[in-house]
Q: What sequence folds into this?
């Protein structure tokens, strides 16, 4: 019974989902209410998580579920990002006539799945969480069912994701077969570093996870799905599931298999380098901003994984700092995308940004900072994110990874610059609407200020993250 | 010293920029006065700083040390005799840029002024940061405003130039970032003062030196990575070219002195021949290229590469004369190239052409302009009595001490320099007035006169009285060389043993 206290947030969010479903069915035209309520309940869930004592480190249900600083931090990140996504997507959804009760409920479902993933300390629990979030995401991807592209992206995502889940499950069964348990701690105790058979299981699971965070070479789905899905869903895709998947990555690699680091380190380094370079090179030719974000997120995942490849707490912390800053930058970027509306239509190609600096100075200067930050130019937040990652990478003398990574930032900066060029150097076009909702304005202001002023207090985030010690 | 005078020097222009950002009207001149006011105040503060500065102490002064990345890196700034001169150069050139703006920038005046002020903040930051990471931050951040200055307000090929400028410099700098982080793990700190005391393990010096070199060589720019410079210069608006030539290029020269020589003496000794060769190629080759240019701005841009060749040559002679000469050459080039770009700007504003062919016989229609242009032409080719002479002379003196052949070849560059500058002057100012449009051209107006005279004054004054500069830098340079020599003598036997 005592266990239930610790998973109060999860219980609360499940009850919320059921309550909202009932409310949505029985009350007519309740989509706006459900939308607001789900945001409110999400924030309450966040408070419930904060309610847990600091530096708590406890496992529940026979060690299959873990509550520690990592899980609390990542859950809060997920929930904050989720509620911001909900709040800034209202107008977009209304315009495309998909402002339905299912939308917030599905997002809540997937967040619940992610919370389970984040806290999982057992292969089974982890898989349940993963499937819960994936199922919700399949539906979300094809949420705009009138549109061909959206349905297509939903199906594409479903088929490929199911394949990767299959591989993952196969990996789980292999690991169970070789170690005799699905619990991370028990696996960890039963490992013999000279035994190579477990590596098969690890590889299969890494493939599945790499698919979920769209790391090269399992990234094929990302550009199509990002482009086809409704913009608000793309925003959700590009940030929230990555947090959960990254947490599982951390826990899976560092709790049971830390002793096999020699075997998985090369894999992670390869995935990381491939993602950084591929993401940077492939984005150069893109015309659609959402597609471009897909490639840029691939390359950013590469940097996040570079931190994971290091094999110590500093490396993990730098990855977490990176993903946190990345979330802020991507939120800002998508807020700008959601502001590009004219005559009841949203625009999403790079050329639509042409010359907006003349008509929309504030929007364009924010986007300018966000893009430079994504490119990793100091003194913006994105630079510090990269700085921490490479600091820990170089500490372990992985110079090749560091140099390749930094060189690919140069390639990547080219396509960010191209957007800036279109915004600032090209001829202006028609004005966009300026009657943005207050939440869009707030989100843009906050993300830009965070990015811009991060250098004044660069230690705050690191201080919080430094409480996370896995090894 | 309790009052954080250096931080306020860095912050003042940014505060001015913030004021501008929140001002309502975009095109009127009020913004210009605000910008001019802040940058002039900054200039006077920096002059005051020069008075407070004690040139007889070899240590860094006015040090501020604050916790920044806690437990890792401190925000640390401070100056010695070398940095103070560059700070004054920055604060001196910026107001002149702002005065020049009204003629050139028609659209988005306010944004342009903001970019220039931010640029000033960052450049001052570069010259007084005493921590490698802080230095890198300022060094790289300058890319953003400069990219916008070239790209928004530049000439017809501005996009190409802006991209080239940005990507070249970024590519050079990322390797430096790797090196900086490595230094942190090798020595446990990135504090320059502590690193001077500790020294860096001789095993790593060569690689680290190369990483820093890759960044500074692009920024200097040295042959063969100089190609971004003519493009960027030609396409940037006058004020942008001035900032670029007068101050941005000096960041690399400053970096060579402060970091390459200061931190990696052993590696510097190893790579001196490389620097000599690249510098000599820069001096001779780009001088020849400059001779062939038909675009005035491009000609001056190539001459900048040649002048910076002297700077790098002087720095790596590792003699008192050589390094002092390099610093004076940089300061002098700051004034002279700024003035030459202003001169070209004056003509471009009137005729909208930078081609030499357009002009000729200006002496009869623009006598005042011709006189000032003469002064700067002569300063650029290093006539005694101008700062250009002092710099080049000291550099060559240092080079003679170190390597006779190098000095002889470098001296040839002086002749070539005289050739292209005088030929430019002859073609633009003398000759027959063929182009009839030139008959209506107006001579300098008041603000142009003010800009050019205020640049001519230090060129001539310091040309006759260089002690003002050399007194300030002498002790610091001396200290640097002492440190260099002692490091060499400490490690050299060890290196030989290893061999």
A:
């Amino acid at each position: 019974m005592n266990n239930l206290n610790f998973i109060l947030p999860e219980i609360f969010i499940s009850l919320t989902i059921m309550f909202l479903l009932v409310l949505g069915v029985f009350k007519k035209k309740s989509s706006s209410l459900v939308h607001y309520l789900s945001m409110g309940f999400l924030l309450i869930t966040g408070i419930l998580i904060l309610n847990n004592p600091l530096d708590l480190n406890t496992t529940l249900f026979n060690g299959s579920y873990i509550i520690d600083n990592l899980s609390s931090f990542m859950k809060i990140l997920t929930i904050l990002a989720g509620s911001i996504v909900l709040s800034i997507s209202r107008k977009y959804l209304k315009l495309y006539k998909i402002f339905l009760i299912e939308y917030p409920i599905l997002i809540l479902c997937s967040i619940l799945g992610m919370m389970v993933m984040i806290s999982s300390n057992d292969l089974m629990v982890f898989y349940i969480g993963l499937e819960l979030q994936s199922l919700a995401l399949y539906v979300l991807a094809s949420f705009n069912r009138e549109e061909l592209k959206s349905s297509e992206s939903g199906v594409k995502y479903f088929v490929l994701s199911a394949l990767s889940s299959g591989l993952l499950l196969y990996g789980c069964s292999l690991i169970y077969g070789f170690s005799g348990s699905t619990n991370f701690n028990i696996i960890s105790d039963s490992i013999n570093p000279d035994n190579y058979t477990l590596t098969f299981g690890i590889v299969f699971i890494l493939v599945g996870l790499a698919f979920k965070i769209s790391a090269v070479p399992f990234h094929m789905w990302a550009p199509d799905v990002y482009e086809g899905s409704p913009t608000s869903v793309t925003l959700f895709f590009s940030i929230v599931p990555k947090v959960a998947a990254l947490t599982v990555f951390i826990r899976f690699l560092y709790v049971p298999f830390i002793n096999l680091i020699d075997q998985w380190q090369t894999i992670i380094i390869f995935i990381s380098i491939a993602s950084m370079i591929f993401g940077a090179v492939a984005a150069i030719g893109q015309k659609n901003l959402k597609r471009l974000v897909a490639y840029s997120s691939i390359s950013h995942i590469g940097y996040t994984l570079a931190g994971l490849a290091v094999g110590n707490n500093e490396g993990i912390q730098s990855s977490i700092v990176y993903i946190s800053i990345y979330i802020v930058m991507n939120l800002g970027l998508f807020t700008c995308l959601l502001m590009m509306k004219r005559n009841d239509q949203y625009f999403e190609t790079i050329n639509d940004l042409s010359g907006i600096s003349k008509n929309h100075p504030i929007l364009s200067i924010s986007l300018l900072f966000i893009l430079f930050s994504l490119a990793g130019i100091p003194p913006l937040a994105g630079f510090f994110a990269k700085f921490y990652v490479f600091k820990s990478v170089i500490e372990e003398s992985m110079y090749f990874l560091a140099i390749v990574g930094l060189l690919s930032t140069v390639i990547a900066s080219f396509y960010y610059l191209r957007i800036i060029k279109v915004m600032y150097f090209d001829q202006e076009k028609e004005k966009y609407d300026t009657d943005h909702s207050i939440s869009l304005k707030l989100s843009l202001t906050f993300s830009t200020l965070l990015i811009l002023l991060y250098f004044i207090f660069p230690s705050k985030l690191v201080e919080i993250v430094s409480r996370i010690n896995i090894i | 010293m309790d009052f954080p005078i250096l931080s306020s020097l860095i912050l003042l222009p940014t505060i001015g920029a913030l004021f501008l950002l929140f001002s309502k009207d975009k095109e009127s001149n009020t913004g210009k006065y605000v910008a001019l006011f802040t940058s002039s105040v900054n200039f006077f503060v920096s002059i005051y700083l020069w008075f407070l500065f004690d040139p007889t102490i070899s240590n860094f002064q006015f040090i501020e040390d604050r916790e920044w990345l806690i437990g890792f890196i401190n925000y640390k700034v401070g100056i010695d005799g070398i940095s103070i001169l560059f700070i004054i150069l920055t604060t001196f050139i910026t107001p002149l840029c702002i005065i020049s703006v009204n003629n050139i920038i028609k659209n988005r005046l306010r944004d342009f002024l903001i970019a220039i002020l931010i640029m000033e903040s960052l450049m001052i930051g570069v010259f007084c940061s005493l921590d490698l990471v802080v230095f890198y931050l300022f060094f790289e951040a300058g890319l953003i405003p400069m990219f916008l200055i070239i790209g928004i307000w530049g000439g017809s090929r501005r996009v190409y130039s802006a991209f080239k400028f940005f990507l070249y410099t970024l590519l050079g700098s990322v390797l430096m970032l790797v090196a900086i982080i490595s230094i942190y793990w090798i020595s446990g700190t990135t504090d320059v003062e502590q690193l001077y005391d500790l020294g860096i393990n001789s095993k790593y010096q060569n690689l680290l030196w190369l990483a820093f070199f890759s960044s500074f060589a692009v920024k200097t720019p040295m042959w063969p990575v100089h190609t971004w410079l003519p493009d960027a210069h030609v396409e940037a608006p006058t004020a942008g070219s001035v900032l670029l030539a007068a101050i941005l290029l000096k960041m690399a020269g400053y970096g060579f002195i402060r970091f390459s020589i200061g931190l990696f003496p052993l590696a510097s000794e190893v790579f001196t021949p490389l620097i000599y060769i690249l510098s000599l190629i820069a001096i001779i080759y780009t001088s020849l290229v400059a001779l062939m240019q038909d675009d005035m701005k491009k000609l001056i841009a190539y001459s900048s590469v040649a002048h910076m060749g002297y700077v790098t040559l002087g720095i790596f002679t590792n003699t008192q004369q050589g390094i002092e000469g390099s610093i004076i050459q940089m300061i002098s080039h700051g004034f002279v190239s700024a003035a030459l770009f202003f001169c070209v700007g004056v003509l471009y504003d009137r005729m909208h052409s930078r081609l030499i062919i357009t002009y000729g016989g200006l002496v009869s229609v623009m006598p005042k302009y011709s006189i000032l242009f003469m002064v700067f032409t002569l300063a650029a080719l290093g006539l005694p009595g101008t700062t250009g002479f002092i710099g080049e002379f000291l550099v060559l003196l240092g080079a003679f001490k170190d390597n006779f052949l190098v000095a002889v070849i470098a001296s040839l560059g002086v002749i070539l320099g005289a050739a292209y500058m005088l030929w430019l002057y002859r073609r633009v100012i003398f000759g027959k007035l063929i182009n009839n449009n030139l008959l209506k051209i107006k001579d300098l107006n008041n603000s142009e006169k003010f800009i050019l005279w205020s640049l001519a004054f230090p060129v001539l004054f310091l040309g006759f009285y260089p002690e003002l500069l050399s007194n300030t830098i002498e002790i610091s340079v001396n200290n640097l060389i002492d440190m260099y020599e002692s490091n060499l003598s400490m490690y050299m036997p060890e290196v030989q043993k290893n061999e």
Notes: Residues 157 and 235 of chain B are 6 Å apart (CA to CA). The first helix of chain B runs from residue 5 to 22. The mean pLDDT of chain B is 85. Chain B touches chain A through 31 residues (CB under 8 Å).
